[in-house]
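Thread title: Can someone regenerate the structure for this chain?

I was given the following input by a collaborator and told the matching structure tokens would be attached. They weren't. Posting the sequence so someone can regenerate them.
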Amino acid sequence: MSFETYVEAAQQFFDELVDRADDDELFAGGYLRGHFDLAVGYAQVEELDLQPEELNTKIEESLVKAYRNGELTDEDKEHVVSIWEQVKELAA
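Best answer:
Regenerated them for you:
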């Protein structure tokens, strides 16, 4: 799967999440989308030719940093990880 196709699929996933998610999932999805969009933006500005797996690695590094900074509760982390696993499956 190409970078562009993966980004489009992920954006659609996040958009559809709004219609089916509960409040906790909505928060986690929005939080994760912020990390996702930021990584995509950096890749585009820096004109990086990334594969979806490389983008995922950058996002995971960003999430780990955020976790270490105490940005989320343990419960919120669980929701973010659950949604993140679903997003990563889109690249398969």
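The helical segments are 3-20, 23-45, 52-68, 74-89.
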